[in-house]
Amino acid sequence: MASIRLPEVQERFIEKIAVLEHKTKSDIVKEAISEYLKRYDLLQTPYELGKESFGKFGSGKGFLSKEYKTLLNDRLNAKHTH
User: Fold this and answer.
1) Cα 13 to Cα 16: distance, rounded to the nearest angstrom
2) Which range marks the domain in which residue 23 is found?
3) Which of 13, 43, 71, 74 sits in a 20 to 30 Å window from 21, CA-based?
4) Residue 67: inside a domain
5) How many domains does the structure of the chain reveal?
């Protein structure tokens, strides 16, 4: 639970909006925060959005990035030699 203090001007605007939209002041503030957070996510780069997942799941075989061509050729040759 969060508690915030707002300047009087902002408080009055929120009260007016709440009356006009038939909502509570809390609902108005929650919606505003939600919109802010959505906008923040849109401003993040693709790297920032996925950085927590990068490198999280691996094969445990550290040599794959260097030897993938050899491994692929071996598999293809083995498939076609049978």
Assistant:
1) 5
2) 7-52
3) 43
4) no
5) 1
Mean pLDDT for 18-44 is: 90
Dihedral over alpha carbons 36, 37, 43, 46 (to 10 degrees):
-170
| pTM (2 d.p.) | 0.50
C-alpha to C-alpha distance for 4 and 24, rounded to whole angstroms: 15
Helix, coil or strand: residue 44: coil
32, part of any domain? yes
For residue 59, give every residue at least 6 positions away whose Cβ sits within 8 Å of its Cβ, in sequence order, or none: none
**Residue 82: pLDDT band with limits 50, 70, 90:** low
